[in-house]
Amino acid sequence: MMPWEAAKLPWVNASLFGVQALLTCVGLYLGDAGAVRAQHDTPLTPASYAFSIWNVVYLLTMIMLVTDISYVGLSLYDSAAKPNVLRLCFAASCVVNGAWCVAFGSGLVDVASVAVSVLWLTLLPLYVFASYERHVRPLVWHEYLCSELCVRLYFAWVTVETLISWTITLQGRVGGFLELATYLVLLSVVVVLALCGIMYGRDPVLALVVVWALVGVAVAIGVFLFAPEGAWAAPKAPAAADSGAAASSGSTTSAPPTAPAASTLAPTNPLAPPTYVLYIWVAIYAFTAATVITDRFFPRFSFY
């Protein structure tokens, strides 16, 4: 690659990130991602608030792109033996991310699973290099915040999204929920990756993102189990209005009853505690993450 071509790569990446943002908007226009997830709900899908982490990912990505254009010395690519290869990996990730958003927004969950897997593979070289840097260079915080943190957070959340997407695909293949052992295996894969990130990559970000996702899963399950009785009951006012209209018009045709769905069935467990009790899981996961990080980076303070 010619030097002048290499110098343009940061600008090319910024342009492709703009294309990614545009394709994301197209995906939102085609269909709400939250609605698609609700339609293909799984026990491993976190509560909707957990996906707001994408706002942080996009913000850090813009900071990384500006850094690579204007402050190359602070860029993650600056210390790489082949920085342009890593830049090309990021360029590919922009294209694949946009395609994934369009596929998922269109309800093509199988295509979306393949796309997010390719996205994970395009980010993997960046993450591996960032982890390698921690072994050969001391941590410089302004470089970490301006460039490296984006790669770590982006890769970590795409790992979670890959798990969710393939869970949706597998459930679609079997036409229902999977065996409990299958969910446990899928969770174990992500947890092992998080532990490998801590042990070999000196990366607490991956572990914290996995904890963030697990807390979201716990909240989603808890809201389903512990919501007050009748919280998901189907509204009766429209049905009553329809019957009144039918009576006034003299029609004797009755509207077909709505088939109950899992989301509209009211829980009947008399021993279910109030919803707020579930949030103790937030503290449990937070302390677990602190224990793992302390044992890895500050063994002198570790329980072990």
Give a nutshell description of this structure:
The protein is mainly alpha-helical and 304 residues long. It has ten helices and no strands. The protein has one domain.
Detail the poorly predicted runs. Answer: 232-270
Percent strand equals: under 5%
Give me the Rg, rounded.
23 Å
Tally of DSSP β-strands: 0
Q: What structural category arises from helix and sheet content?
A: mainly alpha
The DSSP helix count reads: 10
Mean model confidence by pLDDT: 81
Q: Provide the number of structural domains.
A: 1
* Percent helix: over 70%
Report the order of strands and helices.
Answer: HHHHHHHHHH
Given the C-alpha coordinates, what overall shape results?
globular
Please give the alpha-carbon distance between the first and last residues. 52 Å
Note the main sheet: none
In terms of topology, how is this protein built?
Blueprint: H1 3-30, H2 33-39, H3 53-70, H4 83-105, H5 109-136, H6 141-174, H7 180-201, H8 204-226, H9 237-249, H10 280-297
How would you describe this structure to a colleague?
It is a single chain. The chain is mainly α. It has one domain (3-226, 270-301). It is 70% helix and 0% strand. It has ten helices and no strands. The longest helix is centred in the middle third of the chain and has 34 residues, at 141-174. The radius of gyration is 23 Å and the shape is globular.
Sum up the structure in keywords.
single chain, 304 residues, mainly alpha
